[in-house]
């Protein structure tokens, strides 16, 4: 699953620590999500989308293979 | 020029110092031969474990967050995976211990009891956390 969390965060001028505090998670978790090492739960993904004011599809994009499965 | 220890080396350095202090205290108070017999090594191990826990709890790491009982969802998942790894390692160790004890014809019941605990925990785990899928398919009707 590709994601554009880093791009969205940069666009609104937040640091990773700011985003972590806004979401109530650790900075390491924000880093892991941005690097694609961790897939957030649905509630956390929706919190991210709501925070940036974008639909979920603008933040996360599954690979075609995963969708076709 | 003043030199300081890099942050990532401070905890291991602290543990090394603690271990040396423990060894010296142990050797000085109980005699140096006690270092190769229990409880000498146990004392050193205890100091290391306490020192590591002390450092980990204060660190800005996943383990620190778990030890402070404030993990987020990823850290809680990491804790689960660590517990699973520990469980697998213990299961393997108990199985090997049972085989070795059996081959050496020494007391077997503690190993058998541990195997029993593992078996019970395995069954209980599936009973608690497994979904038996007993629900009825209602064809999309609410």
Task: Write up what this structure looks like.
Chain A has 69 residues and is mostly helical. Chain A contains 5 helices and 2 strands; from the N terminus they run βααααβα. Chain B is mostly helical. In chain B, helix 4 runs antiparallel to helix 5. The A-B interface holds A 24-29, 32, 38, 40-41, 44 and B 60-62, 65, 72-75.
Structural class of chain B: mainly alpha
- How many DSSP-defined strands of chain A? 2
Gyration radius over CA of chain B:
23 Å
- Estimate the strand proportion of chain A: 5-15%
Biggest interface between chains: A-B, 11 and 8 residues
Tally of contiguous helical segments of chain B: 5
Structural class of chain A: mainly alpha
Helix content of chain B: over 70%
Report the span from N to C terminus of chain A: 14 Å
**Helix content percent band of chain A:** 55-70%
Quaternary status? heterodimer
Strand order of the largest sheet of chain A: 1-2
Order of helices and strands of chain B: HHHHH
